[in-house]
Amino acid sequence: MKKTIENFILSSFALFLFANSGFGMPVVRSAAGADAADILAAVNDFRADLGVLNPNVPGSFPGGRRQIDWDAVPDIRSSPNVLPANFFNVNSPRGVVFSTPCDNAAFFVSAKSGNPTNTPVRFGDIDPSYTDTFKTFSPQRLFTVVGGNSPCNVVAIDFFVPGTSIPAETTGFGAVFTDVDIPGHTRIIAYDRNGRVLSRGGLKAEKADNGLSFIGVSYSEPKIARVEIISGKNGLFPGIIDSVRGRDVVAMDDFIYGEPQPIF
Asked: Using CA atoms, how far apart are residues 44 and 64, in angstroms rounded to an integer?
């Protein structure tokens, strides 16, 4: 059953998350459903909150947004190959650099159909069950982090002026998740330039078993310097099967965020 919750400014949920934060009330957009059509309205509203889509070039525009949908990542940087943490600040300048607290972990973008290594799509190379577990919002690729010795489900993003090492902050951040089975585990935590939490308790994605979920938060001015994404209860890993009771394996699709603005 489709569920959509939009514009939490006056809701008790938003008040709980952001009361006394000192940063004003944000706009939160959230939706979940069986397929892309069920969350598209919320995603488009969030895009409109941030502004027009800017080109993927170095430097910072005065407004608008950037977006990562993974689908233009070349085969050489897709599964089974590792995605460099700074790919979207150096190779394709969009002002984000990934990190993770997990030991020996690496970032991966799923293979597309017809790839030269015949790698299974939608992370079927990590575990064969994942190809049928995950859907895409924007075909064909997805994103995840994989631990070196054990499952990992935490990705952090630091913002920079695209193509530079200048720290930046943004007006908002949103992400699409695929196959959120257990509510509460999949969430986004936003931080300001001083490392203070903007989203107390995290912005939690709604349940969409075998479907898609979206959650995004935006402010009237740049405030977010870093986000931490917890995707599911369990990280993608060989033998970690989503259908096992009590497990929830979640992959990520589109990232949408405000144009990174330099921190002076």
From this structure: 13
| Cα within 13 Å of Cα(14), Cβ side | 20
Angle at alpha carbon of residue 86, lines to 80 and 88, rounded to 5°: 90
pLDDT at 202: 81
The type of residue at 59 is: G
Assess whether the previous peptide bond of 140 is cis (omega < 30° from 0): yes
Instruction: Give pTM, 2 decimals.
Output: 0.90
Phi, psi of 32 (to 5 degrees): -150, 150
Compute the half-sphere exposure of residue 199: CA atoms within 13 Å on the CB side of its CA: 28
Q: Report the number of distinct structural domains present in the chain.
A: 1
Kindly give the pairing relationship between strand 3-6 and strand 96-99: unpaired
pLDDT (tens digit per residue) in 86-138? 999 999 999 999 999 999 999 999 999 999 999 999 999 999 999 999 999 99
Check: CB of residue 188 under 8 Å from CB of residue 229. Answer: yes
> 86 is in which domain, residue-wise?
3-262
